[in-house]
Amino acid sequence: MPALEVKALHQYFEKGTVNENHALKGIDLTLDPGDFVAIIGGNGAGKSTLLNSVAGSIPVTHGQIKIADKDVTYQNVAKRARLIARVFQDPKAGTAPRLTVEENLSLALKRGQWRNFWASGVKKRDRALFREKLASLGLGLEERLTAEIGLLSGGQRQAVTLLMATLQAPELLLLDEHTAALDPQTSATVMTLTEQLVEAQQITTLMITHNMQDALRYGNRLIMLDHGRIAVDIKGPEKEGLTVADLMRLFKEQSGRELNDDAVLLS
Amino acid sequence: MDILISSISQGLLWSVMAIGVYLTFRILDIADMTAEGSFPLGAAITAHQLVSGTGPVLATLYGALGGAVAGLVSGVLHTKLKIPDLLTGILTMTGLYSVNLFVMGRPNVSLLSDVKTVFTPVDFGDPTLNAIAVGLVVAAIVIAGLVYFFNTEMGLAARAVGDNQAMSAANGINNDTMKIVVYMVSNALIALSGALMAQTNGFADSSMGIGTIVIALSAIIIAEILIRNLSFGWRLVTIIAGAIIYRWIIAWVLDRGVDPNALRLFYALMLVLFLALPLIRKQFQQSMARRENRRRMNE
Fold it and tell me: How far is B174 from A113, CA to CA, in rounded Å?
């Protein structure tokens, strides 16, 4: 049973107007359970549109999306949260700033489940788990359970967001350029943490990145989008030892064009 | 002294309404004008029920329930029909004016002295003291209930919605539902305050809601100026103080012989002042710092 199945996905923006933008042109994509897929592509290639379509934040024009064999094509973001966890590019986006660290973690622990008005939001028995998980980040956050999360730095917040996303293992983890807004060192730390958390629970992961090095280094599969189509899709042993030069050659073979998008090459 | 005691009694009853407004104002970041309609709605339902012979506690609860329904209407208009929050409140408030007239059957219902109210069983020998006693009990129950609710699973979810909607949706929280819940709780409290007010004043009036939102926001902002950065529960307690102080200022001004017709103009001007106060304070500090800097540079 595939973890994610995207069939003939088309996305149009402002369809029928002069500004019509055919952002995705028939994406077919199947992810096996445990796949860690890095998606790269230049500006306008359709990376974010694909991720947002899977997450449910933009309605699908045409096609079908299934997660763990459930058709979610017409489900909204909140409904899909049962199956999906997501980390955003903006470190502020993944947490509720005026809530404490433990309140944020408690919210994430119940992701996609019914929340009642008799059980307390932060449970005593969960605190030990939170401490242990936070301690594993090595940021000293286990001592700051009751601090408002808005007081933490961007890197700390992103690390906590990652923890929140994996606290209750999702069927699919979406990483939306989640290290792009961090400084290089913090970005590397968060990437290492990502790999640890994903590997520990064998979480099926879809990661968008602008960083070609990260895409080559992490995950067992690499997909390059180009003008709304999948231009390159390499997995398993073929991906091992892949270099930027290989990628450029593959891109040319597939699309018949030189890869010359600065946004992809320079990062 | 009399002014202070009557301000405490009036302020306590207002504080229940101010706490209701606080929920939408600070948790959802919405200035919900529904208050202007749900306050007299609570008064109208309760007065009508009391006159019809319903027991005072039940009549008061019906009033609060009516407020919850008004909140439901505003919540649905805002979240499901995507009408801007300010307009939503104005629409519900306008509609409620007619509803209130229908409920009462006329613009004004008097509660004659033989009508039993929630204040009747309390006897400290003075109606103002009775009002304070009832007000304290109600405010304590309301604050305890809210602190409890906003620390439950659902309450946390509601706070997350006010804080970061992308995050709450990504965690499976239905933002629309949670907003509607907060709208309902908020307006139930505002109507509860109206229900109590009708019972101490001895009447319900279709125009008694005018100025509700301004009074509530003033109480909230006084509380926030008084002590900054408080936890949710303590903030609610300080709102009681804010409402009492506000009522005291009003009573003092009226006592100076100000024309009562000017009262609502005064409400509005006071709120303008309170809202501008943080800015005025900041600019004052800046100009002081500049003066200090100039003096040092000239030395």
Answer: 11
